[in-house]
Each structure stands twice: as structure tokens, then as C-alpha cells.
Write a structure and sequence with these properties.
The protein has 11 helices and 11 strands. It is of the alpha/beta class and 292 residues long. Helix 2 links the parallel strand 1 and strand 2. The longest helix is centred in the first third of the chain and has 13 residues.
């Protein structure tokens, strides 16, 4: 994690409220002010990723981010002999309708190694600020109908989203030799025998806040481009915007096309059953857990 303190506290408050037994956060900046802010919390373990930390995993701080991320995930996973580990980024919030997490996990068949919850991606509107809208993965014809001339920005293999559509996984603890990747454990069988996948039909969502704040999006856009966080076509559009005569104006326009929805586009999403609306007051939740 490497986010503004306010975003860290929202994340922690959300998962504490969901009933997580423990939050384990690896801070990419070993001097992150959130580490001191969270120190002593009985259900939060804040780990500074120092050079010594990476050295213990046979890595260095300059190794590719995804390699370090997966190594840290796997290291955390093998410290827990039972239960479940949910791997999420700072801008990903698990959301279930009509049941809690413990009940959901109790229903997972014993032969399943992981439970993956697919993505719902934030779209910005000027409507009720206590509610948030999210678009769901969509088929290509739906994507074309919703986005029109902007459809090439949302593909070809991300199902109408800017970020990933795969979602993230709970992984059953205690499996020897298991190696984790960002979205699921390595080595799952192709026939789906090891994994249960939930989505809109199950009323289970991974709320992805990518693009929810322009300043955070802007700060990360170069890094995401370099780390293959976007499709090739979108990476090229971002590079063109950065090279434009008025780069900030071009980037703001691109962000709006990607992450904001006009009333007409919102209606198009709703009409095709690829829109989720959630009551969401993260600031109030963070204040309730951590104070002003």
C-alpha cells in the first residue's frame, strides 16, 4: 500500500466493519505516516517494507512491483494455518448484499481452494453524494452501446472496465506450497474445480475505486502505464495526452471519459443491468473507527 493517510483509514474502517479478524498491510514506503497512526491497533498489523524486509524474501526494493507484491502476499499467507486470506488493494472494497462474509465463507465447498469475487468499478456522477455508482463487467455489444465512440478505451479484454474485471480472491489457508498472485493462487485447475467465482448474479462485488479521485489517478497514471496497469490502447492514449500542448487539460478530459458518467450513460448502464448503486459513506465510517 502507498496511499494518502485518509484513504488508508477508509480502507481499514471498511474491512474492520466487515468483520476481518486481522488486517495485514505491507507499506511500500517504510516511512509511511500511516504506520505510526495504526500502531497498537489490536486488529491491524502494519508492516514497513524496508530493504531488510525485502532481503528476507530474497528481493530488493527495486525489483518489479508485481514480483514484490506476490512475494509479500505469499509470505503473509503461509503465516496462518487456518481461516481465509482475502488479498485486496487499497482501492478495493468487498461488498455483499444480504449476507455477511462469515456466512459466505461457511458455504464454500471443502474442495475449493479459493473464492473469487468479481469487480464492480466506480463511475463518478453529480447525483446523491451518499450513494455511489459502479459499472459491472459487460459483453462487447453492451460496451459498444454504452460507450459509443469511447468504446475502444474499454477493451478489448477488460469487459468494459478500465481496471481488471477478474476480481480478487479469498484463499483457504493451510495449503502447503501454495503461491499467490494478485487475483488468484497460482496453479488452479483449468476446469474450475479449485475455485468458486461470484458476481452480479450472486450479489457479491469487489468495489474498485480506480479513478474515483482525479488527484490520486493523476499521481499514479505514469506508474500504472509503465506497469501494464492499462490496456495497450489506453496506455497509448495516456502517452498522447501527456505529450499534448495542454497535458493537464487532456488528462482531465481522458479521466472524465473513463471514469465519469453523464445521465445518459448512467441510464444506458442501468437499462442493460450493468449498474450497481451502493450507499457509501467512507469518510463517516473512517471517522467512526479512527476519529477526525
Amino acid at each position: 500500500m502507498n496511499e494518502p493517510l485518509a484513504e488508508v483509514l477508509k480502507f481499514c474502517a471498511w474491512y474492520l466493519e466487515r468483520g476481518a479478524h486481522e488486517l495485514v498491510i505491507c507499506f511500500d514506503n517504510p516511512d509511511d505516516p500511516a504506520i505510526a497512526r495504526l500502531a497498537g491497533h489490536p486488529r491491524i498489523r502494519a508492516i514497513p517494507c524496508t530493504a531488510a524486509f525485502w532481503g528476507a524474501l530474497d528481493l530488493t526494493p527495486d525489483v518489479a512491483f508485481v514480483t514484490r507484491q506476490n512475494a509479500a502476499l505469499t509470505w503473509i499467507y503461509h503465516q496462518y494455518p487456518d481461516g481465509w486470506l482475502l488479498n485486496v488493494d487499497a482501492d478495493e472494497f468487498l461488498y455483499l448484499v444480504g449476507r455477511d462474509v462469515a456466512d459466505l465463507l461457511a458455504e464454500v465447498p471443502a474442495e475449493k481452494k479459493s473464492l473469487r469475487v468479481r469487480t464492480a468499478e466506480r463511475v463518478l456522477t453529480e447525483e446523491n453524494p451518499t450513494c455511489a455508482h459502479f459499472r459491472l463487467p459487460m459483453a462487447r455489444p453492451v460496451r459498444r452501446a454504452v460507450y459509443g465512440e469511447d468504446a475502444p478505451l474499454f477493451g478489448p479484454r477488460r469487459e468494459g472496465l478500465v481496471g481488471h474485471s477478474h476480481g480478487k480472491s479469498f484463499v483457504r489457508s493451510g495449503i502447503r506450497g501454495l503461491v499467490l498472485r494478485q487475483h488468484w493462487p497460482r496453479g488452479l485447475r483449468d476446469d474450475g474445480a479449485d475455485e468458486l467465482v461470484l458476481g452480479h448474479q450472486d450479489r457479491a462485488y469487489l468495489l474498485h475505486m480506480i479513478g474515483a479521485r482525479y488527484d490520486i489517478w493523476r499521481d499514479k497514471v505514469t506508474w500504472r502505464s509503465a506497469s501494464r496497469g492499462f490496456t495497450t490502447g489506453l496506455t497509448e492514449r495516456i502517452a498522447a495526452a501527456q505529450a499534448a500542448p495542454a497535458p493537464e487539460e487532456s488528462l482531465r478530459d481522458l479521466h472524465r471519459r473513463l471514469h465519469a458518467a453523464t445521465p445518459a450513460r448512467l441510464s444506458a448502464l442501468r437499462a442493460r443491468d450493468v449498474l450497481l448503486t451502493v450507499p457509501l459513506e467512507l469518510d463517516a465510517l473512517a471517522e467512526a473507527h479512527f476519529g477526525a
